[in-house]
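This protein record is not my work; I was only asked to verify it. The record follows directly below this note.
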Amino acid sequence: MLSRRRKRQAEDNAKRAQDQEEFEERALQVFGAPLSTIPGTIRSGELWWCKHYQWLKDVGYLLRPRYSPDWVPSWQGTKKDWMDCEDSRGPMIQHILDATHISDGIFVTLKLIKKSRHPYEIEIGQLFSTEPLASDPANHCVPICDVLHIPDDEDQAIIVMPLLRPFTEPRFDTCGEVTECFRQLFVGLQFIHKQHVAHRDCMNLNIMMDATRLFIDPFHPQNTVMRRDYSGDARSFTRTQRPPKYLFIDFGISRRYDSSNVAPLEAPIWGGDRTVPEFQKSNEPRNPFSTDVYYLGNMIRNEFLLTKDGFEFMEPLVNNMVQDDPAKRPTMDEVVARFDQIFEQLSSWKLRSRVVDKTDGNITGLFRGVTHWTRRIGYIIRRVPAIPTP
């Protein structure tokens, strides 16, 4: 097993080296200089996408011009700053890229995976994307639109998903908007657990939102504050006006268990959140469902309780979710039931109150307070619900 793994790793390294050499030759021909010396041009981690540009187009997915074999930077030969040009933007995570579904013009996300490294990602993702689970209102898992198998590498595949954006951008306006986010995430993780799946990495980076209705202008997939064509800032509604749907992504280290195994045990596996108490002192197998509860509770603690005022009503529940002893943490069924009780105690006035960052200065706070009250009065007059439901 180890020798095969080393052989495959050596083959991958050789292939990357060959790709790098080919593209450096092209760079010298087109630009007269190595790629590494030209700001904004293709990085080594993007070469795979360039090499497969035509194949992806043939199967129905168009990458941005940056990845075309005929691409010449739009700023070349002009006085434009490369940072002001749309085609200067590569991906932050090099195995994830945006594309356009050619047949209908819908923007999508492509995720390149190694099946040998993440053998259950496709299976679990498709489970939640297949009826009857796909249309269940409690399902907050990213839909898998398509799976593309790479013709020149049987160990690789591309998962096609909707184009999403970080769930905290743009900023939350009201307490009700945040409360609805909590509700969706609690119900969503409860739903995952009911299918006997442990996510095992449900921290902030693996929570995103479908902001299709939220934005007036299509946003650029690699610089989400900008419009897709880079003609200015991407404008949006508030979440109260156009409620988004929050989604869990990345089932790369997730596991599904037999329904009879109500308390599975797994060896610790490090995801993005490395603060899990039960992983700090021992490699003893643990119940991954309890760890999921910690992940979600810790996300809420870090993203909201520690950084924003006004969410003290969540502290008792979150404190229980992040207890050091995993046996004392509530199940997601218990979390949802307790959250429902908390929600019933919140007044409309509280739900319409402004989300205040602890770092807001006096001038920033005053400006945001005035604009918030203007919107708030308008919502009340128009009877817009304090809890925005998609």
